[in-house]
Amino acid sequence: MYNFEYYTPTFIEFGKKSEEKVAQLIKAQNCKKVLIHYGGHSAKKSGLIDKIEKLLTEENIPYVELGGVVPNPRLSLVYKGIELAKKENVDFILAVGGGSVIDSAKAIGYGIANEGDVWDFYAQKRVTDKCVPVGVVLTIAAAGSEMSNSSVITNDETGLKRSYHTEISRPRFAIMNPEFTMTLPEYQTACGCTDIMMHTMERYFTAGETMELTDKIAESVMQIVLKNAPILLEQPDNYEARAEVMWAGSLSHNGLTGCGIKNKDFATHMLEHELGGVYDVAHGAGLAAVWGSWARYVYKECLGRFKKFAINVMNVEEVGSDEEIALKGIEAMEKFYHSIGMPTSIKELGLDLTDADIEKLADQCCDACGGHKGSAKVLYREDIVKIYKMAR
């Protein structure tokens, strides 16, 4: 077990009618004006935005709003939000939605608090410890952005999808009512469950030391998703299943499942970010499409972890060699993806990539990660090309 730091300052208000606390929680931030940031028509159509605005009005909390966030949130809307927020003297951002909205809100927060181009942070040209505070009303269980230090933005001019991480961007609070996720399309629910699994696995598959308690927590998070994802597809209004998955999403990406682990992997995320930036694929689906190929490419370098995953998470019988057990675990994971309608290849994503396409994606991966990435196995450009071709 390695030394570690653990920081999770986000206050959680979880459960039915928790959104009714939104004005109270914002008031506690002593802010002067709020930017309500949200996605498409669903937040308006459901009445949630109107309810939030009514609650803020009743408490005399001034606000402006900006909708239009899409999956793989766009830098162009971030620029628009920064301009609006500065014009209106906004000093607090309320993100109403899922990971894309929250990530966009964090980026706007960076842009308000810092001079210059906010993209510089995502392009790794500058760093900052300043961000206008963010609060969340969560409507999608997936990215875990409501408790994380991460933000991922797509530059719609260049097609580059890049992330930035600072502790200062962790939301001050997150309101989590599982009922808000009941109207999500099946595909979006499945993508969310996949993202939760992947955030946990990126920390689980490491070649370094681990902590037994952290392993048990991570395995439990994954088991909860494996159990409840099929339930949600059959019973979308099952509150208990929604609640379990929503909380799993937060725990998967707030740092808890990485305590005592020095080197997290996140190579699958790196591979997907380029697909998402260039081809605008759904994040969860992109992760599922490349994970199996990544796993088969690296498992021998991290055999003990893959065997443990197979037995403790995927319920593979401990029969045969370690390698056979590990491969059965990978196969079981892919069967789960298919069972919830997720792809396990790039072709199943609907993409037909040429060798030239793959070379370009690999170049972008290397630019983004400084030439190498991974913990289960450190990947260089040649490895990245091979994995993309396997996944194709």
TrEMBL record:
The keyword Chaperone does not apply. Residues 189-391 form the Fe-containing alcohol dehydrogenase-like C-terminal domain. Signal peptide: none annotated. It comes from Eubacterium album. SUPFAM superfamilies: Dehydroquinate synthase-like. Keywords: Oxidoreductase. It holds the Pfam family ADH_Fe_C. This is Iron-containing alcohol dehydrogenase. InterPro entries: ADH_Fe/GldA, ADH_Fe_C, BDH-like. The keyword Oxidoreductase applies. Residues 9-178 form the Alcohol dehydrogenase iron-type/glycerol dehydrogenase GldA domain.
